[in-house]
Specification:
GO terms for molecular function: hydro-lyase activity. The chain is about 50% helix and about 20% strand. A seven-stranded mixed beta sheet has the order 1-2-3-4-6-8-11, with helices on both faces. It is globular and about 60 Å long. The mean pLDDT is about 95. The structure holds octanoyl-coenzyme A (CO8).
């Protein structure tokens, strides 16, 4: 069930409430050229406003989630080109996507590909996944949040090792470090991620949105301010019909039906 045809990504709604976005430049290991990021940003902006979409899964293929920025494209950018580059705007749209965003990662997640995976709220990795920031080998450094998100995901020492050496880590190391939530056999990575996405899609959308917002606040705010934001979000949800439905369904011993209100 294809929703809309883009060139560098494919959109599918495999089941209720879940949108699957597949990167499709397999000939270059899904290298993230600017046009791909523009499509991804547009698709997520549209999905943000579409009530039928409750959760999004981002995937590559068996060989690669994404092997980074498109190096051929990068080679053509001089300083003014970088200054005028629209990519930061595309990353911003991805960063501000308000619904759960899951990444199903098999194979290479390198450079911008690792950074894209880290934009997801939850990463599920196949056992053959490789996460790395090889930019140093090109004489540059991670430019889409890698130096910051990696520290928050895996801690300083491992982040430094990855960023300064360019050496990737395997899925088990990523799991132990907290970069990924689960490791599966590669054949089941997408299936398992979609299964988790379907379960999230059945949860109350407003609570999902505010819970995601609150967790992400831990990146931005001192603890006292973030706890205050959490308390206010908690209070706000007391006004939602879905909270009444959730509690009533529990007391009635039935499945809840959440409407996003
Ligand atoms: N960009 C463009 N093409 C790529 C990329 C890439 N990142 N990665 C792979 N390809 C292409 C190869 O050139 C090759 O094409 P062709 O068949 O025409 O020669 C094809 O994909 C298959 O790749 P390989 O033959 O190299 O496959 P291998 O299995 O031998 O190796 C690797 C796989 C190890 C993943 C290898 O391809 C590799 O090292 N790729 C580059 C990884 C990398 O350095 N990524 C970081 C890119 S820089 C970055 O992401 C910076 C982000 C900062 C953003 C700043 C915005 C302003």
């Amino acid at each position: 069930n294809t929703v809309e045809n883009y060139r560098d990504i494919r959109l599918q709604t495999p089941s209720d409430g879940v949108l699957l976005i597949t990167l499709q430049r397999p000939e270059v290991l899904n290298a993230l050229r600017s046009a791909l990021l523009a499509e991804l940003a547009a698709a997520l902006t549209q999905a943000a406003g579409d009530e039928a979409v409750r959760c999004v899964v981002l995937s590559g293929d068996r060989r690669a989630f994404a092997a980074g920025a498109d190096i051929r494209e990068l080679a053509e950018l001089d300083a003014i080109g970088v200054l005028k580059d629209r990519r930061p705007q595309y990353w911003q749209a991805i960063r501000h996507f308000p619904k759960p965003l899951l990444a199903a990662v098999n194979g290479y997640a390198l450079g911008g590909g690792c950074e894209l995976a880290m934009h997801a709220d939850i990463i599920i990795a196949g056992a053959d996944a490789r996460f790395g920031q090889p930019e140093i080998r090109l004489g540059t450094l991670p430019g889409a949040g890698g130096t910051q998100r990696l520290v928050r995901s895996v801690g300083k020492s491992l982040a430094m090792k990855m960023v300064l050496s360019g050496e990737p880590i395997d899925a088990q190391t990523a799991l132990a470090a907290g970069l990924v939530a689960e490791v599966t056999v590669p054949e089941l990575t997408l299936e398992r991620t979609l299964e988790l996405a379907r379960s999230l899609a059945a949860r109350p959308p407003l609570a999902l949105r505010l819970a995601k917002e609150c967790v992400l606040k831990s990146y931005e705010l001192p603890l006292e301010g973030a706890l205050d934001a959490e308390r206010k979000a908690f209070a706000l949800l007391a006004a939602s019909a879905d909270r009444r439905e959730g509690i009533a369904a529990f007391l009635d011993k039935r499945q809840p039906n959440f409407l996003g209100a």
